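Chain A, query sequence.
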Amino acid sequence: MTDTPTLPPVRSAERETLESFLDYFRGVLIRKGEGLTEEQVRLTLPPSTLDLLGLVRHMALVEQWWFTNALEGTDDPPRWSDNPAAATDEQEWQHLPTDTMAEALDALREEIARSRANVARHESLDDVTAISVGPPDNPDRFGPRSLRWLLVHMIEEYARHCGHADLLREAADGATGD
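Chain A, predicted structure.
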């Protein structure tokens, strides 16, 4: 496993606080996905079909969407968009038997590095996404989102999924913590 993620500082500027919390939860999720067999990362807790492999793949796609596609305005195709196992737009959850956690973790680390670089290009938390983001029937409904909003949203997204990962990891091998 990787080193224990560093807890965010208790007194720091807003941007450092937000980025530190996001990095903390990124590290927690990576740790939860490491050191398991391919069978263990596919473990589900019924009635849910959620597994650790899907969680890690999902977060790689979420990193790409918010910090590359939305923030920078790129039209990069989503990771795993060519996955024949995907019956919906949420292809990251529908992985193939040949998909591995090592590949998913590499993809997540790659997207995190790209996200950090994209965020670093923005001096102000008030900078906004290059595209408007809203529901499919009205994509301009909410308009552009601020970088501050993106960072808070990603902290929330990771924190929620780290909770899921805690339960799945404990069921897989008894490991707890973080």
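The mean pLDDT is 90. Residues 4 and 130 are 35 Å apart (CA to CA).
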